[in-house]
Amino acid sequence: METLIATRRELLIAPLLAAMPTVLAAGAAVAAPDPSMTIVKLPAQLSWTAPPDVPANSVENAPLWSKPSAPGLYYYLVKWHPGYMSAPHWYEEDRYCVVVSGTWWVTSGAKFDPDSTVPAPAGTFVRRVARTPHYDGVRKDGTEPAIIAICGMGPITFHNAEPGTPGWRKL
Predict the structure, then answer these.
(1) How far apart are CA 131 and CA 133, in angstroms?
(2) Rounded Cα distance, 151 and 92, in Å
(3) d(CA 144, CA 78)
């Protein structure tokens, strides 16, 4: 009798299991967001560019929404490579930053002193208060670039706290 029950159970489950790959494949093909409602940019679709007048492999930007030079909300990614930091500077508006990957080294002040920076690992939130000098980047002993998502209200202007010097520093 037990053999008969097992056989009936197997007979009932077999068609369901046989249909499972078709159901899963069909579900995957339908699961795409409407691009007029949900815009998705995969990492390979991001356009990374270096700002003008910076060394190769020092810092790069990838725009996500608008740009900092335009009025209104902007959102972009910054990638600092090991051995480079920004010069002390400030902006007119607050900037809201989240470390996406790597470790970003940050501090406040108008005098460049990379030893005063503190680590901000992936997942850290940093708010840059308007009109306060700061600088950041990745120390030269860093093993990977740091990628930071930055959001704020534009237009912004980079105000170098050390006029006449480059906006970046090689460590």
Answers:
(1) 7
(2) 13
(3) 14
Confidence of residue 1 (pLDDT cuts 50, 70, 90): low
The pLDDT value given to residue 9:
54
| Collapsed DSSP state (helix, strand, coil) of residue 35 | coil
Q: What is residue 13's three-state secondary structure?
A: helix
Residue 80: the pLDDT is: 98
Q: Residue 99: what are its φ and ψ, rounded to 5°?
A: -75, 120
> In 3-state terms, what secondary structure has residue 69?
coil
Query: How long a stretch of residues is the chain?
Result: 171
- Residue 1, amino acid: M
* Structure tokens belonging to residue 135: 């600088």
The predicted pLDDT at position 12 comes to: 47
Torsion angles phi and psi, residue 140, rounded to 5: -65, -20
CA-based angle 105:109:115, to the nearest 5?
Answer: 45
All structural domains of the chain with their residue ranges:
1-31, 43-170
Whether residue 23 has pLDDT greater than 50: no
Assigned fold of 43-170 = Jelly Rolls (2.60.120)
Distance from C-alpha of 22 to C-alpha of 158, rounded to nearest angstrom: 56
Contact between residue 107 and residue 119 where contact means Cβ atoms under 8 Å apart: no
